[in-house]
């Protein structure tokens, strides 16, 4: 049975919400404090959370922010209940992840309709795979397809991608896009090598996927960078705000290729990458940052080896 977590410090309001929600056929869990709400949300993973804004101590906004920043609870729809009808308060709530607002006194027919709508959307979401899960599955698949030496290079590119995204303050969504792209690049490269085809021939598996609209422009950007990116492709990169990811992905792709040709020698690979950067106008900020990251890790490794 579907479960609703109800959070309100007023016991009369809490009981009233509880009675209505249970009469509609849903189970309920209740809390009167913000910290208790977070704990119960992690424990029970309810399908929806009804959250009063005005709570003692930790406000409803603070609770909502913590819930949406927690990977265990961020997918749970939050309906915020408030006596405030100010547009600025709603905008603030939406910015921290609130899914809906209800103004007191609550119209329970409206609440019932909102719950039914959110339950339907959540059921669809629950059937979808998260991007993080897809990345993990691709990691396993890639390691089954590649030689041990190729896996080492692929994993280093993946690791450096995460580091670069972190240093450049990319969002979680952008970071996941970058990591996913790194894995897709390696899979396409593997298919091309095995079947003696070109990357464009192996991109067709992306076409049924929604990610195709941003993955394919990036793949084509990386492939065409040295020969010049045409205006149509550049517009797509700009349209989806992929400029930073495009630079990161291209530099990592080149670094991975050079690393293979230099038998895994980071120092030689960095030197050659820097030479290419000067010759072909690679994204200099990304190249310099990658150099810093790799050199820092090589230095730390040398200390451990002593």
From TrEMBL:
A GO BP annotation: phosphorelay signal transduction system
TM regions (residue ranges): none
Highest taxon listed in the record's lineage: Bacteria
SMART domains to which the protein is assigned, alphabetical: REC
GO molecular function term, any single one: hydrolase activity
Domain Response regulatory: 3-119
InterPro entries named in the record: Bact_response_regulator, CheY-like_superfamily, Sig_transdc_resp-reg_receiver
Residues found modified as 4-aspartylphosphate: 52
Swiss-Prot/TrEMBL keywords: Hydrolase, Phosphoprotein
Protein name: Metal dependent phosphohydrolase HD region with Response Regulator Receiver modulation
